[in-house]
Every structure is written in structure tokens, then in C-alpha cells.
Design goal:
The protein is mainly alpha-helical. Helices cover 50% and strands 5% of the residues. Strands 1-2-3 form a 3-stranded antiparallel beta sheet. Helix 1 packs across helix 4, helix 6 runs antiparallel to helix 8 and helix 6 packs across helix 11.
């Protein structure tokens, strides 16, 4: 297998693999290369020219950074495999990232409460959706992490219930289960009846028109489309919060914890961030309306 294909195969996240593959193919097309093997002849000038072309086309700085990161990741792997002598992406200036605040929108406390209360209590889907929204809003886990949860991933440690989370790059962390989420999950499991299926998925489809198989993990796209988007529209949140998505619930939980003076290092560990600078993107304490000079103006 060529090193370029090995690099793609070693990316554990399907979402990252798909995005990086598209980004590298875009660079190959821009540079006029016919295949992966010609990447060995790429110089820094080729990368700079690609960056300038993206800037001219008005591509968002965050997207340019991701595309350059994808190419840098590939060449790092090629260097380790002795396929190339150096990484041509090194030294190529990247657009400045927003270091003050993340772009993912979060919701307010009252809005989060409306979302949590939206699913009905008299149906299996409603109970499941309440449990999922509570897990996302109280534990701040990623959508993919939620979908991968198994029944046995709820584990008691020193008298408290934790989720065993399988995060990015195979890293495992333990996240304390909030009592409100625990109660919602118990209600769902009692109705669903798969508490004893320890190896099975914790959150499952309530219907499957394709194969009929309900003993499987949820698809992240379904979590957005059938839960977050559905109740966002029903409660009016989608109209109030531009760009409401599953990650918004993670951002909401992180922002809420930091606003209530949770230690940022603990929040970093809670979220599973490798770098604390990523966690700081959720720290919006400096932009709280009540602290704004606007409300200090008097005439």
C-alpha cells in the first residue's frame, strides 16, 4: 500500500478522513498533479500558490487552515515513511484563527430548558430524545461519542455513575453523569427494555424502514436531523440561534460550566481537548452582557 493510502487509512475518524481526502485531492488538482506519487515533487511555492488561490476565492480562513492542516498531516506521514525529505507546508503562513471565541453558537439557560422539555414523555422516541438531549447538554460529549456509547459504558466508580467515553484518536476518558441525565436515561431504558444488553448500543433507533434492525448505534446525522433540528424548529430555537447544531449543545455545556466558575483545566479534561487553547474558545465570560460597558452608560 502506498504511504499516501496508509496515511488515509490511519485516520481514525471517518469524518476527518473524508474531509482530508477531499482537501488533498483539491490541492492535487490545483497543482496539476496526476496522482498521489507526484506529491513527492511538491515544493513550498506550490503550497503558497494554493493558499493565495483560496484567499482570492474568498474561502473562510478556518477552512483554509483546515486544508493546510490536512496537507501538512499527509507530508508529516510521508516524512516518517522516508517518502519525502521535508514537509513543504512548514513555514507557510496560515490565516489567523479567532483566538477569542469559537464560532459554534451556544444557547442560553432558558433556551436549553425549552429544548430539554420539548420531547414528549408518553412515547419511546420522546423518552429517548430527552435522554439524548440531557446527555449532550449536561455531559458536553461529542455527537460521535454519544452514538458510540454502549450500555456497559455506564460505570459506577466510587459510588458515582460515569460514562466511559471513547474520544478522538482512541483516547478514553470518564465523564461523570449528571443526575438529570441519569434519570432521563433510566426512564428511556425502562421503556426500551435493553438494560441487560451490556454490549449493545445505549441509544438506538426506534424504527428502521430499511432493514428493520433496531439493535444498532445511532447515526450522527440522525441525531442532528431527527432530534436537535426537529426540536429546535418546534421550540423556535432554530429561528433564534443561527446555526444551531449538535455541537451547539456541547458548546452550551462548556460555556455554562465556565460561566459558573468551573476550573478551565478541569473543563479541558471534561471535554477531551488535547490543547487548552481549544477550551478557551468556549470561555465567553469576558463577553457577558451584564459586564459590558454598554450597561454602565448613564445620561
Amino acid at each position: 500500500m502506498p504511504p499516501e493510502e496508509e496515511w488515509l487509512a490511519n485516520l481514525t475518524s471517518p469524518k476527518t478522513r473524508r474531509a482530508y481526502k477531499i482537501d488533498v485531492r483539491e490541492f492535487i488538482a490545483h497543482a496539476g498533479l496526476s496522482n498521489y506519487t507526484e506529491l513527492r515533487a511538491v515544493k513550498r511555492a506550490h503550497v503558497i500558490d494554493w493558499r493565495k488561490d483560496m484567499e482570492k476565492r474568498g474561502i473562510e480562513p478556518s477552512s483554509i487552515r483546515r486544508k493546510l492542516s490536512a496537507l501538512a498531516s499527509l507530508f508529516d506521514y510521508l516524512c516518517e515513511s522516508n517518502a519525502v525529505a521535508s514537509n513543504p507546508v512548514e513555514g507557510v503562513k496560515r490565516p489567523t484563527a479567532n483566538g477569542n471565541e469559537g464560532s459554534t453558537p451556544s444557547v442560553g439557560d432558558a433556551q436549553a430548558r425549552r429544548l430539554l422539555d420539548a420531547p414528549p414523555l408518553d412515547t419511546l422516541k420522546g423518552l429517548r430524545d430527552r435522554a439524548i438531549l440531557a446527555t449532550l447538554l449536561y455531559q458536553a460529549i461529542r455527537c460521535e461519542e454519544l452514538c458510540l456509547l454502549r450500555v456497559k459504558d455506564r460505570q459506577s466508580r466510587q459510588g458515582n455513575l460515569y460514562f466511559r467515553i471513547r474520544g478522538k484518536r482512541g483516547k478514553v476518558r470518564y465523564v461523570l453523569v449528571h443526575p438529570a441525565a441519569q434519570s432521563a436515561i433510566e426512564d428511556y431504558l425502562q421503556k426500551a427494555g435493553h438494560t441487560g444488553d451490556l454490549e449493545g448500543a445505549l441509544f438506538r433507533p426506534v424504527k428502521n424502514n430499511t432493514t428493520g434492525d433496531l439493535k444498532k448505534h445511532l447515526n450522527p446525522n440522525s441525531v442532528y436531523r431527527c432530534i436537535v433540528r426537529k426540536y429546535g424548529l418546534e421550540t423556535g430555537l432554530s429561528a433564534q440561534v443561527k446555526g444551531l447544531c449538535v455541537h451547539s449543545l456541547r458548546a452550551t455545556a462548556a460555556t455554562n460550566a465556565l460561566s459558573h466558575e468551573s476550573d478551565i483545566a478541569k473543563v479541558q479534561e471534561w471535554l477531551g481537548h488535547a490543547n487548552i487553547s481549544t477550551t478557551r474558545l468556549y470561555d465567553r465570560r469576558k463577553s457577558r452582557p451584564e459586564d459590558s460597558p454598554t450597561f454602565r452608560v448613564k445620561y
